[in-house]
Write a structure and sequence with these properties.
- With 236 residues, the chain is mainly beta.
- Helices cover 8% and strands 33% of the residues.
- Strands 1, 8, 9, 10, 11, 12, 13 and 14 form an eight-stranded mixed beta sheet that branches.
- Strand 4 (76-83) and strand 5 (92-97) form a beta hairpin.
- The longest helix has 10 residues, at 214-223.
- It starts with 42 loop residues before the first strand and ends in a 13-residue tail after the last helix.
């Protein structure tokens, strides 16, 4: 890896069908993306996590996608970490720029092994992991924790956040109610969490209904003396 490069601000996302050239670095945008362009292809982070990354030139297995780094100011996925295996005891092998990916399917394809030697774009440069982050309104109302998000593989722009009460992506989506909001509702993304406008709680969309939906809300209601949070499903 190159260790002497100046800290980049964000990775320019090359066309998704592009080859394996080095990603150029540009100044990050100052506003978050609002909505996907008509006809734009989107993928969920959950569709990428856990997939093997393979080179087109030699078919070499480089590792497994373990997380996606997001530029909090631009609201864009900039890179992916590759681990040697899934789960506990795994070791990071490399950090691959989103612009280096050539295809996402049953596996993730890159051009060649040169992706292993790019300067990592990760938390050292202010990028964040959205999964597990709290989503709150400006006044502090808790909406949930991010368990998934949709983004453009061409530009990296995040278009939608999906959250539930725990933000644990390994828990089946059928366990708890999940909700989503568009990035147009997001005011800021920081290490302390995601802040959305007050109207976001009225604009959220229910994605799934969980079989244990009432439990988290009931616990929050008891813990706060009956105030705050979403009402138990049985009371709606």
């Amino acid at each position: 890896r190159v260790g002497a490069a100046a800290p980049p601000s964000a990775a320019q996302q090359a066309p998704f069908a592009g080859g394996g050239g080095s990603a150029a670095l540009v100044a990050r945008r100052q506003s978050l993306p609002s909505s996907p362009a008509p006809g734009e292809v989107l993928v969920d982070a959950s569709q990428v996590l856990g997939k093997r990354v393979i080179t087109r030139t030699s078919g070499r297995d480089l590792g497994m996608v373990s997380c996606l780094w997001v530029d909090p100011r631009a609201g864009e996925v900039v890179s992916l970490d590759l681990d040697d295996k899934k789960g506990a005891g795994s070791t990071r092998i490399a950090n691959v720029y989103l612009s280096r990916l050539t295809q996402i399917g049953d596996v993730v394809l890159v051009h060649d092994e040169s992706v292993l030697y790019d300067t990592p774009l990760d938390g050292r440069y202010g990028f964040v992991l959205l999964t597990g982050m709290e989503v709150r309104t400006r006044s502090g109302d808790f909406l949930g924790k991010v368990r998934d998000f949709a983004f453009s593989p061409d530009t990296g722009a995040v278009s939608k956040l999906v959250y539930d009460d725990f933000g644990l992506s390994f828990l089946p989506v059928t366990f708890f109610d999940t909700f989503s909001i568009g990035m147009a509702e997001v005011l800021s993304i920081g290490l302390s969490g995601i802040v959305v406008g007050e109207e976001a709680k009225y604009k959220e969309r229910k994605e799934t209904s969980g079989v244990f939906a009432a439990i988290p809300s009931l616990l929050r209601s008891i813990g706060s003396g009956g105030g705050g949070g979403r009402a138990p499903a049985a009371l709606l």
